[in-house]
């Protein structure tokens, strides 16, 4: 097809391409030709620009004021997460090899990548997951009612479903874990919480009872050094003190310092 | 050029001339929006707030047209501004007018949202706002809005104004919702042939008109 010698046809196809109604084989042929012929490529770009302006011509409708409040909260959380990432990205010595958490980079990557997503999930609640927003309201209420809480984490499963909320109050050295998902371990298993300090082996913070709210005692230093927490599925009662985790990680999440 | 176009149609509308003059003002809304995006790229929250004040109604309008549901559109808007907050620095690499760039962000967030919904529930088409289909079926007054529109959008507006309302709606929805002819026919509850004809003729007229304006 000598499309590049037929400017009217080229322009017509470019317009349909930009509008999106050129589909299937015709679209693929157009794309292939555009890669070959600069003039066709130019026509497509011009039309993409023109058609994109359709968005500018839509009638204005005022959104609910709540939207800005949500955005503002998310932006605050985003700023906080960025600061924390910067603070925590200081280089750390290599982790001892041969254990499941040995890949420190993986953890830190997960913590860094997870931090933003977690904050978005936590603070925004986004109505994409309305279950979460209820939890977030509750968490926010608790945070304001308990100003001593300095750290908070939402531990999620591999599908990013929030399952356990964690708060830490350094004054009382109390970790409070609240189960919010519907995960229940089998009777012969226990969930065990781990701090993941950079450059050091994961440290057990304790075993979760089956209660909806679990209180554990943790040293301030263990929490401060950990950018992330994880929960593994272990034999009933957890692993013997001082030994490594044996089971799979079921929940994990970044540990975030709450705004001062 | 707006004057010439309108004369061609045998009508001269004062509003258009005034708007044309306003648009020649060097302190265009575009340069202000660009300055705000620059500040947002430096993590300036007050700039985001001002940008939101200036553009949220327009962008919410876009989001509403894409997802056709108020609360979904609010989610889309929220995601879009968060996205703007995070990627404002990328605007400099774009050659689009700022409103067009933000409109693209909103549209793509909206389309993502619809895809997620569609995978959640197959019947989302039924949930689409029936008002839209009704608008297209009738010949309601021109719903286009040129407040804050870029020069490029202004030209498009001139050309779209010359189309029949229903053709214009079909073109807008095809683009905003990324619909094929058959999807469009389904949403507008019109025969496929009619939709194809509208789109073809609409694009044809648009091509002629844009070529004269360029």
How are the secondary structure elements laid out?
The complex is a heterodimer of chains A (260) and B (214).
Chain A (H helix, E strand, L loop, with lengths): L6 H13 L4 H13 L1 H15 L12 H24 L15 H21 L5 H16 L5 E6 L5 E8 L4 E6 L9 E7 L7 E6 L4 E5 L2 H5 L3 E8 L13 E9 L3
Antiparallel strand pairs in A: 1-2, 1-8, 2-3, 3-6, 4-5, 4-7, 7-8
Helix pairs in contact in A: 1-3, 2-3, 4-5, 5-6
Chain B lengths: L1 H7 L5 H11 L4 H13 L3 H23 L2 H18 L10 H23 L3 H4 L2 H8 L13 H11 L3 H12 L4 H8 L3 H22 L1
Helix pairs in contact in B: 3-4, 4-5, 4-6, 5-6, 9-12, 10-12, 11-12
Characterise the protein shown here.
The complex is a heterodimer of chains A (260) and B (214). Residues 90-106 and 120-129 of chain A have low confidence and may be disordered. The relative contact order of chain A is 0.11. Chain A has seven helices and eight strands, in the order ααααααββββββαββ. By secondary structure, chain A is α+β, with helices and mostly antiparallel strands. In chain A, β2 and β3 (174-179) form a beta hairpin. Chain A has two domains: 3-57, no CATH class; 73-257, Immunoglobulin-like (Sandwich). In chain B, α4 (45-67) packs antiparallel against α5 (70-87) and α4 (45-67) crosses α6 (98-120). Chain B has two domains: 28-128, RNA polymerase sigma factor, region 2, helix turn helix motif (Rna Polymerase Sigma Factor, Chain: A, Orthogonal Bundle), CATH 1.10.1740.10; 129-214, Winged helix-like DNA-binding domain superfamily/Winged helix DNA-binding domain (Arc Repressor Mutant, subunit A, Orthogonal Bundle), CATH 1.10.10.10. Chains A and B meet through α1, α3 and α4 of A and α4, α5, α6, α9 and α10 of B.
Question: What are the salient characteristics of this protein?
Answer:
heterodimer; A: 260 residues; alpha+beta; Immunoglobulin-like; 2 domains; eight-stranded antiparallel beta sheet; 7 helices; 21% strand; elongated; B: 214 residues; mainly alpha; Rna Polymerase Sigma Factor, Chain: A; Arc Repressor Mutant, subunit A; 12 helices; disordered N terminus
């Amino acid at each position: 097809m000598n499309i590049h010698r037929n400017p009217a046809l080229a322009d017509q196809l470019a317009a349909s391409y930009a509008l999106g109604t050129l589909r299937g084989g015709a679209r693929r042929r157009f794309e292939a030709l555009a890669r070959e012929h600069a003039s066709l490529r130019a026509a497509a770009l011009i039309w993409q620009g023109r058609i994109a302006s359709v968005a500018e011509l839509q009638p204005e409708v005022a959104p609910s004021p709540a939207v800005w409040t949500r955005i503002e909260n998310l932006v605050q959380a985003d700023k906080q997460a960025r600061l924390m990432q910067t603070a925590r990205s200081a280089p750390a010595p290599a982790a001892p090899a041969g254990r499941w958490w040995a890949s420190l980079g993986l953890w830190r990557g997960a913590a860094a990548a997870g931090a933003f997503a977690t904050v978005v999930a936590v603070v925004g609640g986004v109505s994409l997951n309305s279950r979460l927003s209820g939890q977030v309201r509750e968490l926010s209420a608790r945070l304001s009612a308990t100003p001593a809480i300095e750290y908070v984490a939402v531990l999620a499963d591999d599908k990013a479903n929030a399952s356990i909320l964690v708060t830490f109050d350094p004054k009382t050295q109390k970790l409070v874990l609240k189960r919010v998902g519907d995960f229940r371990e089998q009777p012969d298993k226990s969930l065990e919480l781990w701090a993941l300090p950079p450059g050091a082996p994961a440290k057990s913070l304790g075993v979760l009872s089956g209660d909806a709210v679990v209180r554990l005692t943790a040293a301030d230093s263990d929490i401060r050094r950990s950018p992330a927490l994880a929960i593994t599925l272990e034999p009933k009662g957890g692993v013997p003190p001082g030994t490594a985790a044996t089971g799979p990680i079921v929940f994990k999440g970044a540990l975030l310092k709450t705004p001062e | 050029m707006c004057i010439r176009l309108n004369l061609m149609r045998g009508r001269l509308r004062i509003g258009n001339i005034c708007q044309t003059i306003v648009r020649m003002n060097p302190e265009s809304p575009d340069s202000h929006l660009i300055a705000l995006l620059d500040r947002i790229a430096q993590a300036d929250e007050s700039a985001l707030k001002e940008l939101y004040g200036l553009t949220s109604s327009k962008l919410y309008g876009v989001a509403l047209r894409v997802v056709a549901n108020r609360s979904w559109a609010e989610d889309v808007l929220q995601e879009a501004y968060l996205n703007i907050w995070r990627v404002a620095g990328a605007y400099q690499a774009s050659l689009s007018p700022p409103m067009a760039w933000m409109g693209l962000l909103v549209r793509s967030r909206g389309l993502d949202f619809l895809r997620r919904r569609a995978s959640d529930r197959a019947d989302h088409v039924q949930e689409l706002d029936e008002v839209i289909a009704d608008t297209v079926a009738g010949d309601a007054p021109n719903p286009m809005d040129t407040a804050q529109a870029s020069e490029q959008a202004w030209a498009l507006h001139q050309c779209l104004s010359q189309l029949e309302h229903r053709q214009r709606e079909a073109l807008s929805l095809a683009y905003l919702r990324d619909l094929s002819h058959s999807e469009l026919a389904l949403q507008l509850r019109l025969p496929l042939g009619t939709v194809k004809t509208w789109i073809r003729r609409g694009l044809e007229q648009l091509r002629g008109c844009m070529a004269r304006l360029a």
